[in-house]
């Protein structure tokens, strides 16, 4: 087991990364108060809920559960309300802990619920997908979608502790494992060319679910993100680099309707578009664009998206949170492994980069 | 005009208190970003909305408005959603300001919307009721009600600036002016016996709407609250003193249904119950209990509530946020002008204090 500390002053917290972790032992110092609400979904509950209920009960806590339907399309205000209803029906007070057991959707919703229930209670994360282990474990971003945009309503809420158990990835569908690898690849592309080489060497093992390799990839990704977040918790600057591929990706997800494509899949194609635009801007070589497409393909991820009318695509991009003062800012690459945030790009080339990586039908 | 600074480190902000304030001049340094959403209600809009739209437009900002129905019963997730809808329909981004123009309900809802829209945008408060001028201007508590409890969902969100204009109280119904005086009296009872003497001297002028006296009462109350909040922003300790009368009051409001009684009216009777229990505990003399009832009565506030079955009353009290680890904590008075937070009270005497201050019919 490896331990990574996210350094946020008095909100510093550990991420435990390994296989077959002992939840009772690891959670014990971090569960505050008497009451714990475990929020999970209908897919994860039959697999792992009992394990965590027993672990928390063994700590002498009152445990209640809230089981939501599985999927990004339920990440809305209606299902957020179910969590509040569950907390209030059992009379939980402001001294309780909300434990998220599931993927990014559960983490985002349970996290936002914990941030706003009684104006803030304790939060613990047990991410059960690769995507949420690398992405949601660090950074404190929580929230829900709105029909007019993704993650439009939410809060910054840091957990007390994160348990990232690779043995729980055994039950993850291969498509979701790949979606998680998209975010792993992102860290390499945006700032760590050596990590990209490591991924090129080990991609087959990662796709096959090798737990040791996955733990290493999660550790490296979280360490990368933790460094960036510690410098810029509220996304005033550097943190926006983490959005590589996301502005394009959000447009894809928004157009297709949340849940059609996995978030990681949309980000994967979004990263291709960002790299393609960086290439058209003269910053990234054709060979490096191919190298990017290649590692994404090898992770079993899409490098083109379905045909989306350009006006729709651009409309959804302009609803992205990265828009500042009406000006679209994009995360592009000055060279492979070195991302920048910029408003200085050619809009015509951006349109070309979008169209070049769409299905032509 | 008087200026009071609420000292919260890098979230320090000013409250401007006076009559016929100039909004354009006072808001200018504090409105961030290009876009301003003014949230108000159907009662306030015809009176003051134009004035603030013009002031903000004169600053060169894009101004949009969101007009909610008036009343505590609309302080729910459905109407909160209206604010998000309004923000997204006009394409506002994370660099916008939400300006609350109205009483406590508008301040709480607009404040929570600003805390959670895009995980947090800027917030400006223009409280138009006496209650919100003394209570909501300081402390950053925002939120909405849930069918199972008041203010159960929310956030701590500090404004950039607060404008408390006494001339806007001219249009306030007398019943609401009195409700505001309940919170003013609270500051005297919980910690400032000299302020109580000042109120006894000036209560008739306050009830008559004397703007100079009202400005002085708002300044003293806000200064009192600001001192407490600066020491204890997240209500870990001392800040809970501000809940004098509120646990009893919440039970009254919850039983009657939000909106039947004004919040200040429920708090008024709640303060009588808290003082009555303090008297029964042997801490407050009978004369001081009468003095408390007397100043509350002179403010045209109720000192008894309608008949509420005791079990219901106790049930609603136990849903209050002040319950910690299943133990009810109350704000009581060791002597008049000196409140304490305590679990050490006799439950039988508490029941007597509730029953003694209810309508007998």
UniProtKB/TrEMBL annotation, chains A, B:
Where is coiled-coil annotated? none
Q: Where in the cell is it found?
A: Cytoplasm
Looking at the record, the residues that make up the 3-dehydroquinate synthase N-terminal domain are 66-178
Quick one: which residues bind Zn(2+)? 183, 246, 263
Supply the Pfam families for this chain: DHQ_synthase, DHQS_C
Pathway participation: Metabolic intermediate biosynthesis; chorismate biosynthesis; chorismate from D-erythrose 4-phosphate and phosphoenolpyruvate: step 2/7
Q: What is its EC number?
A: 4.2.3.4
SUPFAM superfamilies for this protein: Dehydroquinate synthase-like (SSF56796)
Record's keyword annotation contains Nucleotide-binding: yes
InterPro entries, A to Z: Dehydroquinate_synthase, DHQ_synth_AroB, DHQ_synth_fam, DHQS/DOIS_N, DHQS_C
The question of whether Zinc is a record keyword is answered with yes
Binding locations of NAD(+): 70-75, 104-108, 128-129, 141, 150
Q: Name one GO molecular function term.
A: 3-dehydroquinate synthase activity
| Coarse class of the protein's main subcellular location | cytoplasm
CDD domains noted in UniProt: DHQS (cd08195)
3-dehydroquinate synthase C-terminal domain location: 180-323
* CC cofactor: Co(2+); Zn(2+); NAD(+)
Cofactor descriptive note = Binds 1 divalent metal cation per subunit. Can use either Co(2+) or Zn(2+).
Q: Which domain of life is it from?
A: Bacteria
Keyword field? Amino-acid biosynthesis, Aromatic amino acid biosynthesis, Cobalt, Cytoplasm, Lyase, Metal-binding, NAD, Nucleotide-binding, Zinc
Catalytic reaction list: 7-phospho-2-dehydro-3-deoxy-D-arabino-heptonate = 3-dehydroquinate + phosphate
Family of the protein in this entry: Belongs to the sugar phosphate cyclases superfamily. Dehydroquinate synthase family.
Protein role: Catalyzes the conversion of 3-deoxy-D-arabino-heptulosonate 7-phosphate (DAHP) to dehydroquinate (DHQ).
Protein name (Swiss-Prot/TrEMBL): 3-dehydroquinate synthase
Organism name: Acinetobacter portensis
The organism's taxonomy opens as:
Bacteria, Pseudomonadati, Pseudomonadota, Gammaproteobacteria, Moraxellales
Q: What would be the name of the gene that encodes this protein?
A: aroB
């Amino acid at each position: 087991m490896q331990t990574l500390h996210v350094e946020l002053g008095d909100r510093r917290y550990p991420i435990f990364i390994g296989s077959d972790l002992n939840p009772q032992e690891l959670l014990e110092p971090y569960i505050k108060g008497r009451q714990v609400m475990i929020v999970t979904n209908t897919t994860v509950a039959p697999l792992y809920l009992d394990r965590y209920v027993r672990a928390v009960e063994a700590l002498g806590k009152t445990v209640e559960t809230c089981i939501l339907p599985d999927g990004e399309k339920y990440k809305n205000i209606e299902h957020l309300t179910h969590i509040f209803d569950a907390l209030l029906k059992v009379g939980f007070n402001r001294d309780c802990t909300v434990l998220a057991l599931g993927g990014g959707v559960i983490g985002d919703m349970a996290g936002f619920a914990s941030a706003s229930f009684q104006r803030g209670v304790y939060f613990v994360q047990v991410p059960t997908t690769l995507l949420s282990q690398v992405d949601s474990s660090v950074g404190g971003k929580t929230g829900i979608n709105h029909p007019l945009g993704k993650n439009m309503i939410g809060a910054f809420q840091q957990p007390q502790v994160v348990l990232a158990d690779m043995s729980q990835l055994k039950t993850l569908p291969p498509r979701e494992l790949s979606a998680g690898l998209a975010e792993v690849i992102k860290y390499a592309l945006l700032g760590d060319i050596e990590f990209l080489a490591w991924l090129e060497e080990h991609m087959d093992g990662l796709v096959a679910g090798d737990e040791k390799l996955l733990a290493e990839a999660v550790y490296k990704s979280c360490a990368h993100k933790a460094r960036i977040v510690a410098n810029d918790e509220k996304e005033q600057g550097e943190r926006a680099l983490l959005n590589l591929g996301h502005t394009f990706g959000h447009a894809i997800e928004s157009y297709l309707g949340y849940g059609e494509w996995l978030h990681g899949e949309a980000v994967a194609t979004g990263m291709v578009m960002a790299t393609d635009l960086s290439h058209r801007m003269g910053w990234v070589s054709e060979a490096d664009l191919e190298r990017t497409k290649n590692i994404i393909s090898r992770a079993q991820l899409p490098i083109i998206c379905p045909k989306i009318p350009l006006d729709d695509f651009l409309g959804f991009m302009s609803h992205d949170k990265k828009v500042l003062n009406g000006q679209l800012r994009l995360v592009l690459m000055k060279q492979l492994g070195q991302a920048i945030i910029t408003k200085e790009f050619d809009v015509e080339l951006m349109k070309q980069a979008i169209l070049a990586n769409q299905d032509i039908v």
